[in-house]
Amino acid sequence: MFKKVFLSLCASLLIYGCSDVDPTTPPIAPPIAPPTGDAGTINVIATNNATGAREYLPTVRPNVTDLSTPESIVVRGTDIYISNRGGAINSQTAEGFISKYDGTNTVKLTVTPALDDPKGFAFMKGDFVFVSNHPNVTLMKIKADGTYEVVSSLPVAGGAGFLNDVVALNDTTALVSDTGKGMIHKVTIKTDGTGFDIVALTNLDAKAINGVNGLAYNATTKLLYLVTSTFGGTATQGDLYSVQLDDSLLIAADTPLTKLNTGGVIGASGLDGLVFIDDNKKLVISDWGVDGAKNAAKIFIFDIATKTILTTIEGGITAAADITVDGNTLYIPEFNDSKMLTIDISTVK
User: Fold this and answer.
1) How many alpha carbons fall within 13 Å on the CB side of residue 275?
2) Its pTM surpasses 0.85
3) Which of 173, 225, 271, 341 has the fewest Cβ atoms within 10 angstroms?
4) What ranges do the domains of the chain cover?
5) Residues 10-28: pLDDT tens digits?
6) How high is the pLDDT of residue 208?
7) CA-CA distance, 302 to 54, in Å (whole number)?
8) Has domain 49-337 been given CATH number 2.120.10.30?
9) Do 240 and 287 contact (CB within 8 A), yes or no?
10) Among 72-86, 112-126, 128-142, 281-295, which is the least confidently predicted range?
């Protein structure tokens, strides 16, 4: 037995010594056996990009019923809210809706009047909700009976190209990305609650943020993070940026837009969702992939301090849209399949 092991080791050393492999390159982990589970188990693998080590992550597609092209997910308390675009892209036919899933049952929220093309949304103070409801931004109010009433819907100046994500800056103010125009708009609820004001963030390089999609905001540093995408943008997009907001939650003149990723675009450039983990030290980014509709979507965990992608999560994920993280669970709306995927990221976050 010892002789066999010794000879095998010598052969391995001889092959490695004669090869052109760079010894500083992280090793490629050997194949790993998929976990056993139900027929519906999805074999999602996380790869440590520094060491090459890989592991399967516990993954489930909950039985969330009646979704229709789900775009964005928000966790509020014990409930999961999912925006559904319903109709064709940028449709304005009142086919959009928001679902609420309590872990067992799914209900469609009653909104009056009905939504057109809801994507990103954010719960605000006083039971108000901002919704990116292309071609308008919509402010809703949760009524005592649990139904939702539209308080106001406003167009953005110059018309929207493709309104997309929403991120809250504080209890009354949020930002809305326009992927088609390469713009970001600030919306603020009026003090009397009768509507909201909307203003475009100026002093942004529209060419650089062409295709701006997912937004994330650090209220402590007042840094806004954003990803650009080939959705509505040019083929050169697929980057992660940060920019400083001032005390008025606007961008002052000559404020630099800082590109964080190095060595080319992130993934296949179909970047969508963006969310903080690890006390705002890392960002989770969703990417539709080369062919995101056919199990090629990926999730990246990006370290802000070192400006590196720490972990790549992939395998069986389709059309990953506007993600969110709650605790150790990553929630992914799978746009084309009208499903929701959950992944336990406790070992990689």
Assistant:
1) 25
2) yes
3) 173
4) 49-337
5) 444 333 333 333 434 444 4
6) 85
7) 17
8) yes
9) no
10) 281-295
Name the 3-class secondary structure at 251. coil
CA angle 280, 46, 119 (to 5 degrees): 55
Judge whether residue 123 has pLDDT over 60. Answer: yes
> What number of residues does the chain have?
349
Contacts of 208 (CB under 8 A, 6+ apart): 228, 241, 257, 259
Q: What are the two backbone dihedrals, phi and then psi, of residue 127, each rounded to the nearest 5 degrees? A: 65, 30
- pLDDT digits 0-9 by tens, 314-335: 998 999 999 999 999 999 999 9
Dihedral through CA 83, CA 330, CA 218, CA 229, nearest 10? -60
For 91, the token pair is 């449709």
Measured between alpha carbons, how far is 340 from 334 in angstroms, rounded to an integer? 6
- In terms of DSSP H, where are the helices of the chain? 2-18
Output the six-digit token pair for 321.
């849209």
Q: Which two tokens stand for residue 242?
A: 């940060």
- Report percent pLDDT > 70 for the chain: 85
How open is the CA angle 171-206-91, to the nearest 5 degrees?
70
Task: Round to whole Å and give the CA distance between 215 and 180.
Answer: 15
187: β partners: 174, 198
Question: Rounded CA gap, 91 and 116, in Å?
Answer: 7
Contact 44, 316 (CB under 8 A): yes
Q: What does each C-alpha distance from 205 to 136, 175, 183, 241, 272 come to in angstroms? A: 23, 17, 9, 11, 19
> If DSSP codes are grouped into helix, strand and coil, which group holds residue 210?
coil
233: Cα separation from own chain's centroid? 17
The two tokens of residue 241 are: 């940026």
